[in-house]
Amino acid sequence: MTDPNKPDQPISDDDWASAMSEQAPEGDAAEEDPWAAAMAEQEAAEQAEDDPTPEPEPPVAKAASEELFRPLSGESGATAARDLEMIMDIPVKLTVELGRTKLTIKQLLELAQGSVIELEGLAGEPMDILINGYLIAQGEVVVVEDKYGIRITEIITPSERIHKLNR
């Protein structure tokens, strides 16, 4: 085998062994490294599959340490506020629904410019405001400086949402 950077010089097994020993962790560092422990455990499992020895006892579950899970404390309110700030800039899709109707494919193909489609919603009835497809409020149409808008008239509570789904 040769070094790709020095193709004229062959690489001996001693060179490989010295290079691997340089990379080996020293003393307690291997015991603290979770990756090294996991790799050693995987190696032991692979060797156990190759050996026709009886199966060892199943591993005993260990308690989760505070390193993995932070204990709950009184200052969790401050972290909750920080976590809430992280999601404030996530975009959501707001939809205002005037009404709905069902059409057959024949009726859909008969539509032309100027056709009027009758919706289930009545004139003056509050319109549904949906966030990412979920009903969260109702409102009425307003016109401000030649632009349409919606004024929220009612926020839907979770229990009201369930009641409306059952209709």
From TrEMBL:
Residues 1-76 are annotated as: Disordered. The keyword Cell membrane applies. It comes from the Bacteria. SUPFAM superfamilies: Surface presentation of antigens (SPOA) (SSF101801). Residues 86-156 form the Flagellar motor switch protein FliN-like C-terminal domain. It holds the Pfam family FliMN_C. Residues 43-54 have a biased composition (Acidic residues). Belongs to the FliN/MopA/SpaO family. This is Flagellar motor switch protein FliN. It comes from Vreelandella malpeensis.
